[in-house]
Amino acid sequence: MFRSSSSATARYVSRACAQRRFASTKTVREVLEEVVPKKQLQLKQLKTEHGQAVLGDVKVEHVVGGMRGLKAMLWEASVLDPIEGIRFHGLSIADCQKVLPAAPGGKEIIAESMLWLLLTGKIPTEAETRQLSRELAEKGELPEYIEKLIDSLPSTLHPMTQLGMGVAALNHESKFQQAYERGIKKSEYWTYALEDSLDLLAKLPALAARIYRNIYNPGKPLPKINKDLDLVGNYVNMLGYGDNHDLTEYLRLYIAIHGDHEGGNASAHTSHLVGSTLADPYLAYAAGLYALAGPLHGLANQEVLRWQMNMQKELGGNITHESIKEFLWKTLKSGQVVPGYGHGVLRNPDPRFMALQQFCDTRPALLQDPIVQLVKKTYEVAPAVLKEHGKTKNPYPNVDAASGCVLYHYGLTQFKASHTAYYTVIFGVSRALGCLTQYVWSRALGLPIERPKSLSMDAIEKLIKQ
Ligand SMILES: CC(=O)SCCNC(=O)CCNC(=O)[C@H](O)C(C)(C)COP(=O)(O)OP(=O)(O)OC[C@H]1O[C@@H](n2cnc3c(N)ncnc32)[C@H](O)[C@@H]1OP(=O)(O)O
Ligand SMILES: O=C([O-])CC(=O)C(=O)O
Protein backbone atom coordinates (compact mmCIF):
# COMPACT_ATOMS: atom_id res chain seq x y z
CA MET A 1 0.00 0.00 0.00
CA PHE A 2 1.32 3.44 -0.69
CA ARG A 3 0.66 7.12 -0.62
CA SER A 4 -0.80 8.83 -3.66
CA SER A 5 1.47 11.88 -3.97
CA SER A 6 2.88 11.86 -7.48
CA SER A 7 6.56 11.50 -6.49
CA ALA A 8 5.75 8.63 -4.12
CA THR A 9 3.71 7.04 -6.88
CA ALA A 10 6.51 7.46 -9.43
CA ARG A 11 8.95 5.79 -7.05
CA TYR A 12 6.46 2.99 -6.43
CA VAL A 13 5.88 2.47 -10.15
CA SER A 14 9.60 2.20 -10.91
CA ARG A 15 10.14 -0.10 -7.92
CA ALA A 16 7.21 -2.25 -9.05
CA CYS A 17 8.71 -2.47 -12.56
CA ALA A 18 12.03 -3.58 -11.06
CA GLN A 19 10.34 -6.08 -8.74
CA ARG A 20 8.63 -7.78 -11.63
CA ARG A 21 12.00 -9.22 -12.63
CA PHE A 22 11.84 -11.49 -9.56
CA ALA A 23 9.16 -13.93 -10.52
CA SER A 24 7.18 -14.55 -7.33
CA THR A 25 4.64 -17.34 -7.67
CA LYS A 26 2.49 -16.72 -4.62
CA THR A 27 -1.25 -17.23 -4.78
CA VAL A 28 -3.56 -14.31 -4.11
CA ARG A 29 -4.59 -16.06 -0.86
CA GLU A 30 -0.98 -16.27 0.32
CA VAL A 31 -0.45 -12.57 -0.35
CA LEU A 32 -3.68 -11.71 1.46
CA GLU A 33 -2.65 -13.82 4.48
CA GLU A 34 0.33 -11.46 4.77
CA VAL A 35 -1.57 -8.22 4.16
CA VAL A 36 -4.71 -8.80 6.25
CA PRO A 37 -3.07 -8.65 9.73
CA LYS A 38 -1.33 -5.37 8.82
CA LYS A 39 -4.60 -3.82 7.70
CA GLN A 40 -6.41 -5.11 10.78
CA LEU A 41 -3.80 -3.39 12.92
CA GLN A 42 -4.13 -0.17 10.92
CA LEU A 43 -7.88 -0.13 11.54
CA LYS A 44 -7.45 -0.87 15.25
CA GLN A 45 -5.05 2.07 15.56
CA LEU A 46 -7.36 4.35 13.59
CA LYS A 47 -10.22 3.50 15.93
CA THR A 48 -8.29 3.82 19.19
CA GLU A 49 -6.05 6.77 18.33
CA HIS A 50 -8.26 8.79 16.00
CA GLY A 51 -11.79 7.56 16.61
CA GLN A 52 -12.96 11.07 17.56
CA ALA A 53 -11.16 12.97 14.75
CA VAL A 54 -13.53 15.05 12.58
CA LEU A 55 -13.52 14.48 8.79
CA GLY A 56 -16.19 17.07 7.93
CA ASP A 57 -19.57 18.51 8.90
CA VAL A 58 -22.93 16.98 8.12
CA LYS A 59 -25.11 19.72 6.68
CA VAL A 60 -28.77 19.75 5.75
CA GLU A 61 -27.68 19.92 2.09
CA HIS A 62 -25.92 16.55 2.54
CA VAL A 63 -29.03 14.93 3.97
CA VAL A 64 -31.35 16.20 1.24
CA GLY A 65 -28.73 16.16 -1.56
CA GLY A 66 -27.84 12.51 -2.00
CA MET A 67 -25.01 12.75 0.59
CA ARG A 68 -22.77 14.26 -2.11
CA GLY A 69 -19.28 14.89 -0.75
CA LEU A 70 -20.02 13.36 2.66
CA LYS A 71 -17.05 11.29 3.81
CA ALA A 72 -18.92 8.43 5.42
CA MET A 73 -17.63 5.09 4.11
CA LEU A 74 -14.53 2.97 4.37
CA TRP A 75 -13.38 1.63 0.96
CA GLU A 76 -9.91 0.21 0.59
CA ALA A 77 -9.06 -0.41 -3.06
CA SER A 78 -9.48 2.97 -4.72
CA VAL A 79 -9.98 6.66 -4.02
CA LEU A 80 -11.47 9.15 -6.50
CA ASP A 81 -9.96 12.62 -6.82
CA PRO A 82 -12.33 15.17 -8.42
CA ILE A 83 -9.59 16.46 -10.74
CA GLU A 84 -7.20 13.56 -11.29
CA GLY A 85 -9.84 10.83 -11.31
CA ILE A 86 -9.50 7.31 -10.00
CA ARG A 87 -6.42 5.83 -8.34
CA PHE A 88 -6.28 2.14 -7.50
CA HIS A 89 -4.21 1.84 -4.31
CA GLY A 90 -2.62 5.12 -5.34
CA LEU A 91 -1.98 4.14 -8.98
CA SER A 92 -3.58 6.10 -11.81
CA ILE A 93 -4.83 4.34 -14.94
CA ALA A 94 -1.62 5.36 -16.76
CA ASP A 95 0.49 3.92 -13.90
CA CYS A 96 -1.49 0.67 -14.08
CA GLN A 97 -0.92 0.51 -17.83
CA LYS A 98 2.82 0.62 -17.11
CA VAL A 99 3.04 -1.96 -14.32
CA LEU A 100 0.16 -4.44 -14.50
CA PRO A 101 0.80 -7.57 -16.57
CA ALA A 102 -1.12 -7.93 -19.86
CA ALA A 103 -2.28 -11.13 -21.56
CA PRO A 104 0.22 -13.10 -23.68
CA GLY A 105 0.25 -11.31 -27.05
CA GLY A 106 -1.65 -8.33 -25.63
CA LYS A 107 -0.79 -4.88 -24.29
CA GLU A 108 -3.77 -3.86 -22.21
CA ILE A 109 -4.29 -4.40 -18.48
CA ILE A 110 -6.24 -7.57 -17.80
CA ALA A 111 -8.94 -8.25 -15.22
CA GLU A 112 -6.72 -10.63 -13.25
CA SER A 113 -3.84 -8.19 -12.75
CA MET A 114 -6.31 -5.44 -11.77
CA LEU A 115 -8.08 -7.82 -9.37
CA TRP A 116 -4.75 -8.72 -7.79
CA LEU A 117 -3.89 -5.06 -7.30
CA LEU A 118 -7.32 -4.23 -5.88
CA LEU A 119 -7.32 -7.15 -3.46
CA THR A 120 -3.75 -6.97 -2.19
CA GLY A 121 -2.47 -3.46 -2.99
CA LYS A 122 0.46 -5.15 -4.74
CA ILE A 123 1.56 -5.61 -8.34
CA PRO A 124 1.37 -9.26 -9.41
CA THR A 125 4.20 -10.85 -11.32
CA GLU A 126 3.57 -12.35 -14.72
CA ALA A 127 3.59 -15.85 -13.17
CA GLU A 128 1.11 -14.87 -10.45
CA THR A 129 -1.20 -13.32 -13.02
CA ARG A 130 -1.15 -16.43 -15.22
CA GLN A 131 -1.80 -18.63 -12.21
CA LEU A 132 -4.84 -16.53 -11.24
CA SER A 133 -6.11 -16.70 -14.85
CA ARG A 134 -5.83 -20.48 -14.76
CA GLU A 135 -7.59 -20.73 -11.40
CA LEU A 136 -10.48 -18.62 -12.67
CA ALA A 137 -10.69 -20.57 -15.93
CA GLU A 138 -10.82 -23.85 -13.99
CA LYS A 139 -13.79 -22.59 -11.96
CA GLY A 140 -15.54 -20.88 -14.84
CA GLU A 141 -18.21 -23.34 -16.02
CA LEU A 142 -21.79 -22.74 -14.83
CA PRO A 143 -23.75 -25.27 -12.79
CA GLU A 144 -26.53 -26.86 -14.82
CA TYR A 145 -29.34 -25.31 -12.76
CA ILE A 146 -28.03 -21.83 -13.61
CA GLU A 147 -27.94 -22.67 -17.32
CA LYS A 148 -31.54 -23.91 -17.08
CA LEU A 149 -32.62 -20.82 -15.13
CA ILE A 150 -31.10 -18.43 -17.69
CA ASP A 151 -32.41 -20.46 -20.65
CA SER A 152 -35.92 -20.30 -19.18
CA LEU A 153 -36.04 -16.48 -19.18
CA PRO A 154 -37.80 -14.57 -21.97
CA SER A 155 -35.38 -13.03 -24.47
CA THR A 156 -37.23 -9.74 -23.97
CA LEU A 157 -36.17 -9.56 -20.31
CA HIS A 158 -33.45 -6.93 -19.92
CA PRO A 159 -30.00 -8.57 -19.84
CA MET A 160 -29.16 -6.74 -16.59
CA THR A 161 -32.24 -8.24 -14.91
CA GLN A 162 -31.10 -11.67 -16.12
CA LEU A 163 -27.54 -11.10 -14.90
CA GLY A 164 -28.71 -10.12 -11.42
CA MET A 165 -30.96 -13.18 -11.26
CA GLY A 166 -28.14 -15.51 -12.31
CA VAL A 167 -25.70 -14.00 -9.81
CA ALA A 168 -28.22 -14.17 -6.96
CA ALA A 169 -29.11 -17.80 -7.77
CA LEU A 170 -25.44 -18.77 -7.75
CA ASN A 171 -25.56 -18.27 -3.98
CA HIS A 172 -26.77 -21.87 -3.92
CA GLU A 173 -22.99 -22.52 -4.08
CA SER A 174 -22.02 -20.04 -1.35
CA LYS A 175 -19.23 -21.37 0.87
CA PHE A 176 -19.53 -18.24 3.01
CA GLN A 177 -23.18 -18.96 3.76
CA GLN A 178 -22.47 -22.64 4.54
CA ALA A 179 -19.57 -21.71 6.82
CA TYR A 180 -21.71 -19.11 8.61
CA GLU A 181 -24.36 -21.73 9.24
CA ARG A 182 -21.68 -24.04 10.68
CA GLY A 183 -20.85 -21.22 13.10
CA ILE A 184 -17.28 -20.35 12.06
CA LYS A 185 -15.38 -17.62 13.88
CA LYS A 186 -15.68 -14.04 12.68
CA SER A 187 -11.93 -13.96 12.02
CA GLU A 188 -12.39 -16.66 9.35
CA TYR A 189 -15.16 -14.90 7.42
CA TRP A 190 -12.84 -13.29 4.92
CA THR A 191 -11.34 -16.56 3.70
CA TYR A 192 -14.78 -17.88 2.71
CA ALA A 193 -15.67 -14.47 1.29
CA LEU A 194 -12.58 -14.74 -0.90
CA GLU A 195 -13.49 -18.25 -2.09
CA ASP A 196 -17.00 -17.12 -3.06
CA SER A 197 -15.67 -13.97 -4.71
CA LEU A 198 -13.19 -15.86 -6.88
CA ASP A 199 -15.86 -18.44 -7.77
CA LEU A 200 -18.30 -15.71 -8.77
CA LEU A 201 -15.73 -13.74 -10.78
CA ALA A 202 -14.77 -16.96 -12.57
CA LYS A 203 -18.37 -17.71 -13.56
CA LEU A 204 -19.44 -14.22 -14.61
CA PRO A 205 -18.14 -14.48 -18.22
CA ALA A 206 -20.02 -17.74 -18.89
CA LEU A 207 -23.18 -16.31 -17.30
CA ALA A 208 -22.97 -13.01 -19.17
CA ALA A 209 -22.14 -14.74 -22.47
CA ARG A 210 -25.07 -17.15 -22.10
CA ILE A 211 -27.44 -14.22 -21.68
CA TYR A 212 -26.03 -12.64 -24.86
CA ARG A 213 -26.28 -15.91 -26.79
CA ASN A 214 -29.88 -16.51 -25.70
CA ILE A 215 -31.03 -13.03 -26.70
CA TYR A 216 -29.09 -12.51 -29.93
CA ASN A 217 -27.94 -15.90 -31.22
CA PRO A 218 -30.45 -18.44 -29.85
CA GLY A 219 -29.39 -22.03 -30.38
CA LYS A 220 -25.77 -21.17 -31.26
CA PRO A 221 -23.36 -23.51 -29.40
CA LEU A 222 -21.38 -21.86 -26.59
CA PRO A 223 -17.64 -22.61 -26.57
CA LYS A 224 -16.18 -24.31 -23.50
CA ILE A 225 -13.81 -22.34 -21.33
CA ASN A 226 -10.22 -22.46 -22.57
CA LYS A 227 -7.96 -23.01 -19.52
CA ASP A 228 -5.07 -21.22 -21.24
CA LEU A 229 -6.95 -17.96 -21.75
CA ASP A 230 -7.44 -15.00 -19.45
CA LEU A 231 -10.91 -14.16 -18.10
CA VAL A 232 -11.73 -11.60 -20.79
CA GLY A 233 -10.20 -13.72 -23.57
CA ASN A 234 -12.67 -16.43 -22.59
CA TYR A 235 -15.53 -13.95 -22.29
CA VAL A 236 -14.97 -12.62 -25.82
CA ASN A 237 -14.69 -16.16 -27.11
CA MET A 238 -18.00 -17.15 -25.51
CA LEU A 239 -19.64 -13.97 -26.83
CA GLY A 240 -18.67 -15.28 -30.29
CA TYR A 241 -15.93 -12.72 -31.16
CA GLY A 242 -12.89 -14.84 -30.29
CA ASP A 243 -10.94 -14.04 -33.46
CA ASN A 244 -11.21 -10.28 -32.92
CA HIS A 245 -7.96 -9.33 -31.19
CA ASP A 246 -8.74 -5.59 -31.07
CA LEU A 247 -12.14 -6.15 -29.43
CA THR A 248 -10.49 -8.51 -26.93
CA GLU A 249 -7.90 -5.88 -26.07
CA TYR A 250 -10.60 -3.20 -25.83
CA LEU A 251 -12.63 -5.32 -23.43
CA ARG A 252 -9.54 -6.13 -21.35
CA LEU A 253 -8.93 -2.41 -20.90
CA TYR A 254 -12.64 -1.66 -20.42
CA ILE A 255 -13.12 -4.34 -17.77
CA ALA A 256 -9.94 -3.42 -15.89
CA ILE A 257 -10.66 0.32 -15.68
CA HIS A 258 -14.38 0.02 -14.89
CA GLY A 259 -13.52 -2.38 -12.04
CA ASP A 260 -13.61 0.02 -9.12
CA HIS A 261 -14.55 3.67 -8.56
CA GLU A 262 -14.25 4.06 -4.79
CA GLY A 263 -17.19 3.15 -2.57
CA GLY A 264 -19.80 5.88 -2.85
CA ASN A 265 -21.05 5.13 -6.38
CA ALA A 266 -24.48 3.51 -6.38
CA SER A 267 -23.47 -0.05 -7.34
CA ALA A 268 -20.53 -0.26 -4.95
CA HIS A 269 -22.44 1.35 -2.12
CA THR A 270 -25.44 -0.97 -2.60
CA SER A 271 -23.27 -4.05 -2.67
CA HIS A 272 -21.41 -2.82 0.44
CA LEU A 273 -24.65 -2.17 2.32
CA VAL A 274 -26.14 -5.56 1.49
CA GLY A 275 -22.84 -7.30 2.32
CA SER A 276 -22.76 -5.58 5.70
CA THR A 277 -25.78 -7.69 6.75
CA LEU A 278 -23.56 -10.74 6.10
CA ALA A 279 -25.65 -11.67 3.08
CA ASP A 280 -23.18 -13.70 0.99
CA PRO A 281 -21.07 -12.19 -1.83
CA TYR A 282 -23.50 -13.41 -4.52
CA LEU A 283 -26.49 -11.64 -2.97
CA ALA A 284 -24.45 -8.53 -2.22
CA TYR A 285 -23.19 -8.25 -5.78
CA ALA A 286 -26.61 -9.04 -7.32
CA ALA A 287 -27.97 -6.06 -5.38
CA GLY A 288 -25.13 -3.88 -6.68
CA LEU A 289 -25.95 -4.92 -10.25
CA TYR A 290 -29.48 -3.60 -9.94
CA ALA A 291 -28.12 -0.21 -8.91
CA LEU A 292 -25.79 -0.33 -11.91
CA ALA A 293 -28.85 -0.92 -14.11
CA GLY A 294 -30.18 2.62 -13.55
CA PRO A 295 -29.82 5.19 -16.38
CA LEU A 296 -28.02 7.73 -14.18
CA HIS A 297 -25.38 5.10 -13.40
CA GLY A 298 -24.17 2.14 -15.49
CA LEU A 299 -27.10 2.06 -17.91
CA ALA A 300 -25.91 5.46 -19.17
CA ASN A 301 -23.59 3.64 -21.63
CA GLN A 302 -26.67 2.26 -23.39
CA GLU A 303 -28.40 5.65 -23.16
CA VAL A 304 -25.39 7.37 -24.75
CA LEU A 305 -25.44 5.04 -27.71
CA ARG A 306 -29.19 5.49 -28.17
CA TRP A 307 -28.78 9.28 -27.93
CA GLN A 308 -25.78 9.43 -30.31
CA MET A 309 -27.63 7.24 -32.82
CA ASN A 310 -30.68 9.50 -32.63
CA MET A 311 -28.36 12.45 -33.19
CA GLN A 312 -26.84 10.73 -36.23
CA LYS A 313 -30.28 9.94 -37.66
CA GLU A 314 -31.64 13.41 -37.09
CA LEU A 315 -28.61 15.38 -38.30
CA GLY A 316 -27.99 13.25 -41.39
CA GLY A 317 -24.81 13.12 -43.52
CA ASN A 318 -23.04 16.39 -42.83
CA ILE A 319 -22.75 16.70 -39.05
CA THR A 320 -21.10 19.93 -37.92
CA HIS A 321 -20.19 21.33 -34.51
CA GLU A 322 -23.06 23.79 -34.96
CA SER A 323 -25.65 21.07 -35.64
CA ILE A 324 -24.42 19.03 -32.62
CA LYS A 325 -24.76 22.15 -30.49
CA GLU A 326 -28.38 22.55 -31.60
CA PHE A 327 -29.08 18.88 -30.83
CA LEU A 328 -27.56 19.28 -27.35
CA TRP A 329 -29.77 22.30 -26.65
CA LYS A 330 -32.80 20.38 -27.86
CA THR A 331 -32.01 17.57 -25.39
CA LEU A 332 -31.52 20.02 -22.54
CA LYS A 333 -34.60 22.09 -23.34
CA SER A 334 -36.74 18.97 -23.37
CA GLY A 335 -35.70 18.50 -19.71
CA GLN A 336 -33.49 15.44 -20.27
CA VAL A 337 -29.91 14.99 -19.11
CA VAL A 338 -27.13 14.67 -21.67
CA PRO A 339 -26.14 11.04 -21.12
CA GLY A 340 -22.42 10.38 -20.56
CA TYR A 341 -21.80 13.86 -19.15
CA GLY A 342 -21.61 15.05 -15.55
CA HIS A 343 -20.53 13.22 -12.41
CA GLY A 344 -21.21 13.09 -8.70
CA VAL A 345 -17.52 13.58 -7.82
CA LEU A 346 -15.41 14.25 -10.93
CA ARG A 347 -14.88 17.85 -12.03
CA ASN A 348 -12.69 17.14 -15.07
CA PRO A 349 -12.96 14.79 -18.07
CA ASP A 350 -13.01 11.24 -16.69
CA PRO A 351 -9.55 9.64 -17.19
CA ARG A 352 -11.37 6.41 -18.07
CA PHE A 353 -13.05 8.24 -20.97
CA MET A 354 -9.63 9.59 -21.96
CA ALA A 355 -8.08 6.09 -21.81
CA LEU A 356 -10.79 4.72 -24.10
CA GLN A 357 -10.32 7.68 -26.46
CA GLN A 358 -6.58 6.97 -26.50
CA PHE A 359 -7.33 3.36 -27.43
CA CYS A 360 -9.41 4.67 -30.37
CA ASP A 361 -6.73 7.18 -31.38
CA THR A 362 -4.22 4.40 -32.04
CA ARG A 363 -6.51 2.42 -34.34
CA PRO A 364 -7.34 3.76 -37.83
CA ALA A 365 -10.47 1.56 -38.12
CA LEU A 366 -11.91 3.16 -34.99
CA LEU A 367 -10.87 6.66 -36.04
CA GLN A 368 -12.85 6.25 -39.27
CA ASP A 369 -15.97 4.85 -37.61
CA PRO A 370 -18.89 7.33 -37.84
CA ILE A 371 -20.25 6.67 -34.31
CA VAL A 372 -16.77 6.89 -32.75
CA GLN A 373 -16.17 10.12 -34.67
CA LEU A 374 -19.48 11.45 -33.41
CA VAL A 375 -18.51 10.76 -29.78
CA LYS A 376 -15.32 12.76 -30.31
CA LYS A 377 -17.09 15.63 -32.06
CA THR A 378 -19.72 15.74 -29.31
CA TYR A 379 -16.91 16.01 -26.74
CA GLU A 380 -15.58 19.03 -28.64
CA VAL A 381 -18.92 20.82 -28.24
CA ALA A 382 -20.78 19.52 -25.18
CA PRO A 383 -18.71 20.98 -22.30
CA ALA A 384 -19.25 24.56 -23.52
CA VAL A 385 -22.99 23.96 -24.00
CA LEU A 386 -23.35 22.39 -20.55
CA LYS A 387 -21.41 25.29 -18.99
CA GLU A 388 -23.74 27.76 -20.69
CA HIS A 389 -26.75 25.73 -19.55
CA GLY A 390 -25.31 26.23 -16.08
CA LYS A 391 -26.83 23.40 -14.11
CA THR A 392 -24.37 20.53 -13.99
CA LYS A 393 -21.37 20.89 -11.69
CA ASN A 394 -19.30 18.88 -14.15
CA PRO A 395 -19.76 19.64 -17.87
CA TYR A 396 -17.25 16.97 -18.94
CA PRO A 397 -17.66 13.41 -20.22
CA ASN A 398 -17.69 10.41 -17.90
CA VAL A 399 -16.65 6.89 -18.90
CA ASP A 400 -20.06 6.06 -20.36
CA ALA A 401 -19.72 8.75 -23.05
CA ALA A 402 -17.51 6.45 -25.13
CA SER A 403 -17.70 2.86 -23.97
CA GLY A 404 -20.88 1.57 -25.69
CA CYS A 405 -20.16 3.32 -28.98
CA VAL A 406 -16.80 1.53 -29.36
CA LEU A 407 -18.53 -1.80 -28.72
CA TYR A 408 -20.98 -0.91 -31.50
CA HIS A 409 -18.04 -0.51 -33.87
CA TYR A 410 -16.75 -3.97 -32.95
CA GLY A 411 -20.02 -5.63 -33.86
CA LEU A 412 -22.16 -5.42 -30.74
CA THR A 413 -24.76 -3.62 -32.78
CA GLN A 414 -27.81 -5.37 -31.37
CA PHE A 415 -29.79 -2.41 -30.25
CA LYS A 416 -33.23 -3.54 -31.34
CA ALA A 417 -34.78 -1.97 -28.29
CA SER A 418 -33.46 -0.39 -25.13
CA HIS A 419 -34.96 -3.15 -23.04
CA THR A 420 -32.67 -5.77 -24.57
CA ALA A 421 -29.47 -3.73 -24.94
CA TYR A 422 -26.49 -5.65 -23.60
CA TYR A 423 -23.87 -2.94 -23.00
CA THR A 424 -24.32 -2.52 -19.24
CA VAL A 425 -23.84 -6.25 -18.66
CA ILE A 426 -20.16 -5.82 -19.60
CA PHE A 427 -19.92 -3.07 -16.98
CA GLY A 428 -21.56 -5.55 -14.59
CA VAL A 429 -18.88 -8.17 -15.26
CA SER A 430 -16.25 -5.53 -14.53
CA ARG A 431 -17.63 -3.87 -11.39
CA ALA A 432 -17.54 -7.25 -9.61
CA LEU A 433 -13.76 -6.74 -9.30
CA GLY A 434 -14.16 -3.78 -6.96
CA CYS A 435 -17.35 -4.75 -5.14
CA LEU A 436 -16.11 -8.24 -4.31
CA THR A 437 -12.70 -6.93 -3.27
CA GLN A 438 -14.37 -4.67 -0.73
CA TYR A 439 -16.63 -7.54 0.38
CA VAL A 440 -13.48 -9.50 1.29
CA TRP A 441 -11.95 -6.49 3.06
CA SER A 442 -15.15 -5.67 4.94
CA ARG A 443 -15.17 -9.19 6.40
CA ALA A 444 -11.41 -9.17 7.06
CA LEU A 445 -11.75 -5.89 8.94
CA GLY A 446 -14.92 -7.00 10.75
CA LEU A 447 -16.86 -3.93 9.60
CA PRO A 448 -20.31 -3.65 11.21
CA ILE A 449 -23.76 -3.62 9.62
CA GLU A 450 -24.42 -0.24 7.92
CA ARG A 451 -27.13 1.71 9.65
CA PRO A 452 -26.97 5.50 9.24
CA LYS A 453 -29.51 7.69 11.04
CA SER A 454 -32.29 9.16 8.94
CA LEU A 455 -34.43 12.21 9.73
CA SER A 456 -37.80 13.50 8.57
CA MET A 457 -38.08 17.15 7.43
CA ASP A 458 -39.90 17.95 10.69
CA ALA A 459 -37.12 16.31 12.66
CA ILE A 460 -34.50 18.33 10.74
CA GLU A 461 -36.34 21.59 11.45
CA LYS A 462 -36.60 20.68 15.12
CA LEU A 463 -32.86 20.01 15.28
CA ILE A 464 -32.05 23.32 13.57
CA LYS A 465 -34.24 25.25 16.07
CA GLN A 466 -32.45 23.58 18.98
C1 LIG B 1 -20.45 5.10 -14.44
C2 LIG B 1 -21.32 6.23 -14.03
O1 LIG B 1 -22.23 6.06 -13.29
S1 LIG B 1 -20.93 7.77 -14.61
C3 LIG B 1 -22.48 8.64 -14.63
C4 LIG B 1 -23.36 8.14 -15.73
N1 LIG B 1 -24.62 8.92 -15.83
C5 LIG B 1 -24.83 9.81 -16.81
O2 LIG B 1 -24.00 10.03 -17.66
C6 LIG B 1 -26.19 10.48 -16.81
C7 LIG B 1 -26.05 11.98 -17.03
N2 LIG B 1 -25.47 12.63 -15.87
C8 LIG B 1 -26.21 12.87 -14.75
O3 LIG B 1 -27.41 12.65 -14.69
C9 LIG B 1 -25.51 13.48 -13.54
O4 LIG B 1 -24.41 14.26 -13.96
C10 LIG B 1 -25.05 12.43 -12.53
C11 LIG B 1 -26.20 11.53 -12.10
C12 LIG B 1 -23.95 11.55 -13.12
C13 LIG B 1 -24.48 13.12 -11.29
O5 LIG B 1 -25.54 13.81 -10.66
P1 LIG B 1 -25.30 15.01 -9.65
O6 LIG B 1 -24.11 14.73 -8.78
O7 LIG B 1 -26.57 15.26 -8.95
O8 LIG B 1 -24.92 16.19 -10.64
P2 LIG B 1 -24.95 17.77 -10.38
O9 LIG B 1 -24.76 18.08 -8.94
O10 LIG B 1 -24.00 18.35 -11.33
O11 LIG B 1 -26.45 18.12 -10.78
C14 LIG B 1 -26.93 19.46 -10.72
C15 LIG B 1 -28.00 19.65 -11.76
O12 LIG B 1 -27.41 19.49 -13.06
C16 LIG B 1 -28.14 18.53 -13.78
N3 LIG B 1 -27.21 17.73 -14.61
C17 LIG B 1 -26.19 16.98 -14.19
N4 LIG B 1 -25.64 16.34 -15.24
C18 LIG B 1 -26.33 16.72 -16.32
C19 LIG B 1 -26.26 16.37 -17.69
N5 LIG B 1 -25.38 15.49 -18.15
N6 LIG B 1 -27.15 16.94 -18.53
C20 LIG B 1 -28.05 17.82 -18.08
N7 LIG B 1 -28.19 18.17 -16.79
C21 LIG B 1 -27.33 17.61 -15.93
C22 LIG B 1 -28.73 17.61 -12.71
O13 LIG B 1 -29.80 16.83 -13.24
C23 LIG B 1 -29.13 18.61 -11.67
O14 LIG B 1 -30.33 19.22 -12.08
P3 LIG B 1 -31.50 19.56 -11.00
O15 LIG B 1 -30.89 20.60 -10.10
O16 LIG B 1 -32.61 20.07 -11.85
O17 LIG B 1 -31.81 18.31 -10.27
O1 LIG C 1 -18.43 7.23 -9.23
C1 LIG C 1 -19.63 7.32 -9.57
O2 LIG C 1 -20.49 7.91 -8.88
C2 LIG C 1 -20.10 6.75 -10.85
C3 LIG C 1 -19.01 6.14 -11.66
O3 LIG C 1 -18.34 6.81 -12.42
C4 LIG C 1 -18.73 4.74 -11.46
O4 LIG C 1 -19.32 4.12 -10.56
O5 LIG C 1 -17.90 4.18 -12.18
UniProtKB/TrEMBL annotation:
InterPro entries linked: Citrate_synth-like_lrg_a-sub (IPR016142), Citrate_synth-like_sm_a-sub (IPR016143), Citrate_synthase (IPR002020), Citrate_synthase_AS (IPR019810), Citrate_synthase_euk (IPR010109), Citrate_synthase_sf (IPR036969)
Molecular-function annotations in GO: acyltransferase activity, acyl groups converted into alkyl on transfer
Record localization: Mitochondrion
Gene3D superfamilies: Citrate Synthase, domain 1 (1.10.580.10), Cytochrome P450-Terp, domain 2 (1.10.230.10)
Active site, per annotation: 297, 343, 400
NCBIfam families: cit_synth_euk, PRK09569.1
Name by which UniProt lists this protein: Citrate synthase
